[in-house]
Amino acid sequence: MGHIYADVELINGEDLLLSKRHIIGEEEVKRMSVRILVDTGAYMLTINENIQQQLQLPFLEKRKAILADGRILECDVVWPIELRFKNRKVICSAMVLAGDSEPLLGVIPMEEMDVLIHPQREELIVNPEHPYFAQLKLK
Asked: Would you tell me which CATH number, out of the four given (1.10.1520.10, 1.10.150.20, 3.30.1370.100, 2.40.70.10), belongs to the domain 5-126?
């Protein structure tokens, strides 16, 4: 199986809240479309500094992460970011990688959106058992 990419929309979650409260207009909500690598070996959503700067996501904390090559890296974590894929959305935090590093969609936001990798088509899909809404496991 090759690399799997998905087209997602990333939105500044604070802006969405301000818009819902009519403090800013809908047109002022910072958002962008991103082609993201679906990575089942990663836990979290990761974005790069360029995405962070464009969306102006608020800093939450610093965390350490282990990269695929075994190096440990300390990254900024930003929150809230809303990620949308087809008829699914999740509000999550994201680790910020340096420069224009490739953004990654990890398993935690994938599980929360109830999406799957279709191995034959090599694409991210909405869970066909729950096509109209995400269903989460609580046990």
From this structure: 2.40.70.10
